[in-house]
């Protein structure tokens, strides 16, 4: 066992600096909403002050509107939920003409989640939205587990990811985030491929493929055989994938998977994440993301961290020391 | 037009005021919430979230059976059957226990529509119709209440229903599948027999199992009678965000949503599926494809 870190003097929570950077993008705090759990941002605006969040990641937008999957689309499982929504969304045109103006009016920091069945579709989306005001970054959904074409399995090929990221890179100077799925042999391969293609950051991870069977009917509890598992059940799994990815790349990683409290979020930061996303928790508690910001601030202050960045990767540093390797503050050090 | 649609639901703390056994596994639950909570209307629902440690993660949607404002607080009443992990845990809560309530959510029964109000309840579908009966009484309007269940034991809330109707000279019509009480047969067969005697036109407001609602909807559509059906679904958020509670739209509704195109409210612009939570839970009969409702 390594010695616990030396006690730090508490800092007034209000003085804790929560700002983080994802490439050229500076966020007021590290807490984002996870795509698909916050609509297009305005649905919760009467109960959540969007300007208090690091940013809002929208529901994934595709070129054409999508009607989504047949019912049932959601099922609760132990400490989590299964979903099979199937990327229901209003499509590019209505997102641009109706949703984006509302988000601008709310002065939210908007990260548009984009999904496509082919590299061409993603390139079309980025090109169409690249010059519009009100979007600070794009999160490319390379990992939807609930669509027949262009889902997590299609995008799990590192060569395809790298080539596609490079193509999108050529269309925009805005921050590009690649959202990765956990159901791959080695997430370091998909993470490195996105970095090589020019991604500014990664989101780790999307939902895990899962099933639930209704024994009496001998059928799926969803309309499809499988869905994506989210919620507290996946937090330890997501944390491990996030830690692994953060150790493999030099770009920032956004942790996602079962985060419902400030402590959850800070575990991801300690594991190497720069920012976090709150998703399924919002379904139970619409104000969850805003609460997480406050809880992070309180813990960091009480434990004497003046900046959230001072906690980043600290777990990795401790593990490296334990193995006799020199402690290094940068993420590259965690590779050793 | 405002850029941001008006939404009035919110999440607030609640306390259990009372919980009673109503027989046959049914429970009556009363919650107290702060006075700023908007008073739900009949047909609307709320999301009940158990506080940790809870055996379930997601909130449970529940139709409101009573709502009143008193002493600066709002009291909400619910009639439910403890069938799953969530409702079983709910049934264990003692007076004073805390939970969170989100609401009011969804669309209510349009009780001001002209015509004779006919409330059609199947089993525990009586819950929102008890509230509808109260609301009609408050408007000094009489109604016909058709209440059906498989057996007399499952006519839960029958005495409450009778009490609510007595005040305004409205009438109660009872049916059981096995004939153990009232008319022997289902509510549609009973409607077929008694409805011609009522003052026309009729406006139906129904809640019950989906099979019963499909039968009521077909009966109404076949006779040009307006009918509003309160549907159920498994839900996650209950607020239109997760898109988790789709119901199949009718061909006419699909065509209408397609024609409205960009003019349709964006969240409601899915031509294939309506969301139970925000498009409903109360739907006009012509809106859904009853052959595909599960």
Keywords for this structure?
heterodimer, A: 336 residues, alpha/beta, TIM Barrel, eight-stranded parallel beta barrel, disordered C terminus, B: 294 residues, Elongation Factor Tu (Ef-tu), domain 3, Rossmann fold, 3 domains, seven-stranded antiparallel β-sheet, 6 helices
Descriptive report:
The complex is a heterodimer of chains A (about 325) and B (about 290). By secondary structure, chain A is an alpha/beta fold. Helices cover about 30% and strands about 20% of the residues of chain A. In chain A, the strands form 4 sheets. An 8-stranded parallel barrel of chain A has the order 3-4-7-8-9-10-15-16, surrounded by 6 helices. In chain A, strands 5-6-14-11 form a 4-stranded antiparallel beta sheet, with no helix packed on it. The model of chain A is unreliable at about 325-335 (pLDDT under 50). Chain B is α/β, with parallel strands linked by helices. Chain B has helices spanning about 85-90, 125-140, 160-165, 185-195, 210-225, 250-260; strands at about 10-25, 25-35, 45-50, 60-65, 65-70, 75-80, 100-105, 115-120, 145-150, 170-175, 185, 200-205, 225-230, 245-250, 275, 280-285. Chain B has a 7-stranded antiparallel beta sheet. Chain B has a 7-stranded mixed beta sheet with strand order 11-10-9-8-12-13-16, sandwiched between helices. The chains are: A alpha/beta (about 325), B alpha/beta (about 290). The interface between A and B is large, with 47 and 39 residues.
Determine the CATH topology of the largest domain in chain B.
Rossmann fold
Shape field of chain A? globular
User: Could you name the CATH homologous superfamily of chain A?
Assistant: Aldolase class I
What CATH architecture of the largest domain in chain B do you see?
A: 3-Layer(aba) Sandwich
**Into which percentage range does the β-strand content of chain B fall?**
25-35%
Rg measurement of chain A, Å? 19 Å
Strand order of the largest sheet of chain A: 3-4-7-8-9-10-15-16
